[in-house]
Specification:
1% strand; two-stranded antiparallel sheet; transit peptide; Pentatricopeptide repeat-containing protein; 26 helices; mainly alpha; 485 residues; PPR_rpt; 2 strands; TPR-like_helical_dom_sf
């Protein structure tokens, strides 16, 4: 028997149910017709089968007659029927009621190592690394050795291992065919780091006898720096002819040699001789790098006796027409010296100038914040803290930055913010220091919160930190005995 699938649908030619179907139900497989709910206009049947539905003959005749009678009538849907169908779709869907027992878990705090973006190398660095990796294996050994730090430092170690009665030329002769101009500058500096100025002088004398290696300002500057650092420039440092020797040297020496000599004198602690060298360079119209002035300034500001020289160097550095060669670390060093000299306006001016050319570092921000705290401008210092936290290059703060920020929060009376910075500091992998706890305890003591002071003392003791004895004795008197913690 063929399967019949009948559904209520709209077809191109409507088939009106006969009167006999509406009065006496005809059993059609797959179609359910409810009495009283179908009309001659609303019932339409489409059959998907190869044979027709077996209606009785009288029903077929009645259907044919009614079809002819109702051809001219309107076969559309009435307004009541459309409203009834639309009401079925307007009924709202049943929503699942919320479960009161289900608790929403709070999102975890972001981890610093996951929120910070990794620092990718610059494109130029990538190109250099790729070129070095591809060409290093095909280059001859002499080209690879003349700039290889491992090879040049290895020569310095061989020279250092020689017995005292042997000269450095016994090692250098074996590697002479692999050396080029400028190669021995790293060897001489390494001998200086080892504390062997005599071996560095022997290396310079051997290089002077090699026509393919000398003259070379890089080798000469490295040797002069090592000799000046270890007080081996006897002709320049002799008391009788120091001025005449410097006057003869300054006009003819190269800038690299003069800067190496000045930095060597600074490392040796000869501030007066370095100052004399800078004066002669200015008289002869020789311009030295700003880094030399910064090194001398920092060395002079170590003691109070050198504050006058440091202030003069700050003014001299400010009078220069351009200081674009000032590195970020040198700029930060000048700011620290100005904070010692209480020249806070110079710190702000230098900070504003540097922001026009580059992005300040965490150390520079910390120095300016400390300067504003020393000046008493705590609100402006906190505004700079927020600016530093928004800077992309300052995503990770260091220990001095946290120390300055905690002291600033205590000075503002915002102790809860200081505690939050301590927690953030521990999340970043740093351990709070004793002076941070001292500052916090003093702030809570001034606010009269002795219970919080007792809690902080216990935390510091559990961390193995030694707090200020005077602070602990004062707290013990206020709380009521040394065992009250």
């Amino acid at each position: 028997m063929p399967q019949v699938k009948a559904t209520v649908a709209m077809v191109s030619r409507p088939l009106t149910a006969p009167a006999i179907v509406s009065q006496t139900l005809v059993k059609v497989p797959g179609v359910a017709i409810m009495p009283g709910r179908c009309s001659s206009r609303s019932l339409r049947i489409s059959c998907s089968c190869t044979q027709g539905i077996p209606f009785p003959d009288d029903a077929r005749g009645s259907a044919a007659m009614e079809l002819e009678d109702e051809e001219g009538e309107d076969s559309g849907w009435s307004q009541d029927e459309m409203d009834a169908i639309s009401a079925l779709f307007d009924r709202p869907m049943r929503q699942k009621p919320p479960n009161p027992r289900k608790k929403h878990r709070a999102l975890p705090l972001p981890l610093p190592h996951k929120t910070r973006l990794p620092i990718a190398p610059a494109p130029k660095q990538q190109i250099r690394l790729a070129a070095r990796a591809s060409l290093s294996s095909r280059a001859p050994f002499s080209d690879r050795a003349r700039k290889s730090p491992e090879f040049l430092i290895g020569i310095a170690r061989e020279i250092a291992a020689l017995p005292p009665d042997r000269d450095a030329s016994s090692v250098l002769d074996r590697w002479a065919r692999f050396l080029r101009k400028g190669s021995l500058s790293l060897t001489i500096r390494e001998l200086g780091h080892m504390g062997l100025p005599d071996r560095a002088l022997q290396t310079l004398c051997w290089a002077q006898r090699q026509p393919q290696l000398f003259p070379d300002d890089r080798v000469l500057a490295s040797a002069v720096h090592v000799l000046a650092r270890f007080d081996r420039l006897k002709k320049v440092e002799s008391s009788s002819s120091s001025s005449s020797a410097l006057e003869e040297c300054v006009p003819t020496a190269s800038r690299a040699v003069l800067e190496a000599m000045a930095t060597g004198f600074v490392r040796a602690g000869k501030i007066g001789l370095t100052r004399r060298l800078l004066d002669l360079a200015r008289i002869n119209g020789r311009t030295l790098g700003a880094g030399v002035y910064v090194k001398l300034m920092v060395e002079a500001a170590r003691t109070r006796d050198g504050y006058g020289l440091a202030a003069a160097l700050v003014d001299e550095l400010g009078d220069r027409p351009e200081i674009t060669d000032l590195k970020p670390q040198d700029c930060t060093a000048v700011m620290k010296v100005c904070v010692k000299l209480r020249r806070f306006a110079a710190v702000e001016s230098l900070f504003t100038w540097f922001k026009e050319f580059g992005a300040p570092t965490v150390v520079m921000y910390t120095t300016v914040i400390h300067s504003r705290c020393r000046e008493g401008r705590h609100r402006e210092a906190m505004a700079l803290v927020w600016e530093m936290e928004r800077a992309p290059q300052c995503r990770l703060l260091d220990l001095p930055a946290y120390r300055v920020i905690v002291n600033l929060c205590v000075a503002l009376g915002d102790h809860e913010r200081a505690l939050r910075y301590l927690s953030r500091m521990e999340e970043d992998g740093f351990v709070p220091t004793a002076d941070m706890y001292d500052s916090l305890i003093q702030g809570y003591e001034a606010a009269g919160r002795l219970a919080k002071c007792r809690q902080l003392v216990r935390e510091a003791d559990s961390a193995g930190l030694k707090l200020n004895r005077r602070l602990l004795s004062r707290l013990s008197q206020q709380i009521g005995g040394p065992h009250s913690y």
